[in-house]
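Methods — Computational structure assignment.
A single polypeptide chain was analysed. Its primary sequence is given first, followed by the predicted tertiary structure written as structure tokens.
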Amino acid sequence: MKRYLSGIFIFLSVIFVIIGFVLDFYWSGIVGWGLAVICLILALYFTKYITDEKKDR
């Protein structure tokens, strides 16, 4: 399950940015980009759990 978290967090960051653009509140863009950066940092962290197919062979 941990190897899929990287892709999930990248998808969530895209969703947060889109929601930040769609909502027209005062701080929504900054909050959306902040959450997107946090999700991308978490996606970067969980890339270490992605298995290497060449090592398994």
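Note: DSSP finds three helices and no strands in the chain.
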